[in-house]
Amino acid sequence: MSDALRKVQAGQPLAIPASAYNAFVDAALDHRHRASRVGREARPAFRQASIVLVRNDSGAERERFDVLGVGVPVIDPADGADAFKERVALAGVVPVTGTHEGLFVVLAEPLASGAIGHAFAAGVCPARIDVPEKEGEWRCAEIAGGVAANLAAQPQGSAAILWRAGGTGVQWAVVRLGNARTMHVFPVELSQVGGDAGGESAPASWTYDVRGVESGALLAEDINPVAAPHQWRRPATGAMEAATFGYAHFQDDGAGGRELVLGWINEAPAGEGDDPGSGDDVPPPCGHPGNEPGAGGESDGGDDTEHPGDDPGAGGNSSGDDTDHPGDSPSPPSSGDCE
Questions:
Q1: pLDDT digit string (tens) for 179-194?
Q2: Contact status, residue 125 vs residue 86, Cβ threshold 8 Å
Q3: Among 213, 241, 269, where does a domain finish?
């Protein structure tokens, strides 16, 4: 069966089958239909919304997985609304502290200066991160101001670290871009290193070293939990027992970094929860001031005379002795010696 849409050569007689003619009409109608919808239902340029086009305006060639700060579209909607809506393209520069936190992309391909290419704006991707030598809770990553080669590990940030090679310094990691910068509250261990318990005329002044419970990392040294930015509050007076545990979070320090904030610690008034009369307050075993009834001593014949400290109505007349008799109160007066 011959093909109705076969091509012909010059000089051949032209005979257009009905099926071929109808195919021409269908193609023309489809073109007219699609042309009438341009600008109203334009198809997105990419199937993955997490991939965007970026123009390298950093002034130098960039490698795959470099980091560029973004914010300004390449096509201004005021200059071309249809082109702006059809394709997302952003200008990328070297990240700037205080400007590009959470506003950056990771390049998916190498880019020459001024060239346009693809980059990760959200989702999971490989990246290089720089982990500080000091101990810390390195859960997230953020831009490293003035550096395009890598991100910087942070306790909090706009990229979550799903995996990293380990150790310190620049290393490979798997990150999730677009991580919400929510407050992460975590448990901490406290070691008292300074200050005192306070007393009747002065508040406690304990200071602490702070370590993460999960990592064991030293997060801060010699911290006063009632000084800014910390949120703990102590009574104005009264002795306090030193804390051993608490909860903390990190917050922006106003300079593009992070600072630790103690929110709650388990300091408690000194002696709270002790049993009355226990420990050093146990009375001596004799019938003298401070003794409990029957704490010691011998009555001469178990008489029922009334003795100093006896409950009312014990009977008899007191002979003034200081032995322990039935019915004596805890603190009878005494002049004798303990047995």
A1: 765 567 889 999 999 9
A2: no
A3: 269
